[in-house]
Amino acid sequence: MSLRLARLFTATLIGLSASATVLAAGPQLVWRGDITTARGVVTDVAKAWEKAGKGKIELQPFNTASGIDAVAKGSADLAGSARPGIGAAEQSLTFTPVAWDALVMVTYPSNPVSNITLKQLHEIYMGRITNWKDLGGEDAPINLYAVASPQDGVEYSLRRLLFGRGNQPVAAPRLYVNVAKLEEGVTLDKRGLGASTLAGASSNKKVKILSIDGVAPSMSTVGSGAYPLYTELYLVTNETGPKAAEVKDFIAFVTSSAGSSLLRSHNLVPYADGASLASKDAARRASIASTVGTRANVGQPMTTPTAAPAAAPALAAAAVAKETAVAKAQVAGKGAKAAKETKASVATTAEPSQFAKVVASVTTSAHQGFKGVHAEAFTSSDNAKVGGKFAKVLADAVTVKGKPVAKPAAPVDATEKSSAVATPKVADAAPVAKPAKVAKAEAKKPAAAARTYKVAQGDTLYSIAKKNAVDVNQLRAMNGLKDNNVRLGQVLKVGAR
Question: Do 34 and 96 belong to one domain?
Answer without folding.
Answer: yes
